[in-house]
Amino acid sequence: MARKPLEPPPVAALAAAPVRVPKAAQLIANSIREQIASGALSAGSPLPNETDLMAHFAVARPTAREALRILEAEGLLEIVRGAHGGARVRTPDVGAAARHCAVLLQLQGTTAAEVYEVRLMLEPTAARLAAERAPREAADILDALIAEEERAVEETTSLASLTIRFQETLVDVAGNPTLALLVRLLHDLASRQTSARIRPDLDEATRIRLRRRLIRAQRAVVAAIREGRGEDAESEWRRFLSGVRDELLGGRDSRVGLAPREPRSSTRRGVG
């Protein structure tokens, strides 16, 4: 029996999924972005002036300017106005990228408990990697930060910023840039938790006790790192983060900086 020839899809089906053609400015921005990412354009490198960009890409001035504005908004270019100005490549800001992702997670209703769940997956691993890859160098850097923390133990703002520095430095010395980016994203969310006052009932004596416990935990993990005991460093930091989670959240699963969300329904997840 002969097979029937395939029939072309109805026009209505094609119309339901239109093809989006990128704007010329976006294509130009993509081209320049790829050159920055590949290293062909390094930080500080000047871009050709608008006239040269127009000639190279065969576009009008408004299109060239829009492409530059796209890259400026992404933090990849610095544009100086004036007769002696122009566009120069900037070093991408990891912190800015993390803040954008953090806002997205907040809008999706990420809870404080979920943030700590992921932190417990990532940060203890960073402690182990630091112990395995550069134990003495990493320990020296971290010990210097702890000394600063001890001098600021009763200064809430100073110690909070130093604590974030310690945690991010711990990840930096692990030597994995991807891990560092993810942890910075989580720390941005954690700072939103702090501003949201997840546990407003904590008195000053309790806060100081928590800060001293933080420093003791940091000393324990740094000692394990210095001696190259990766598994011990990992378990020490996991134990500390678990305690902080329980102390700060107090069993609550509140949204970061927002009111508690309703439980996720199966229909929202697309499950029948």
Account of the protein in words:
64% of the residues lie in helices and 3% in strands. With 272 residues, the protein is mainly alpha-helical. It has 2 domains: 23-89, Arc Repressor Mutant, subunit A (Orthogonal Bundle), CATH 1.10.10.10; 95-249, GntR ligand-binding domain-like (Four Helix Bundle (Hemerythrin (Met), subunit A), Up-down Bundle). A two-stranded antiparallel sheet has the order 1-2. Helix 2 crosses helix 4 (61-73) and helix 7 (135-151) runs antiparallel to helix 8 (156-172). The protein starts with 10 loop residues before the first helix and ends in a 23-residue tail after the last helix. Mean pLDDT is 79; it is low at 256-272.
Strand order of the largest sheet: 1-2
Q: How many strands appear in the DSSP assignment?
A: 2
Query: Roughly how many Å apart are the termini?
Result: 39 Å
Strand content: under 5%
List low-pLDDT spans. 256-272
Q: Helix and strand succession?
A: HHHHEEHHHHHHH
CATH topology of the largest domain: Four Helix Bundle (Hemerythrin (Met), subunit A)
CATH superfamily of the largest domain: GntR ligand-binding domain-like
What is Rg? 25 Å
Summing up helix and strand content along with how strands pair, one would put the structural category as mainly alpha
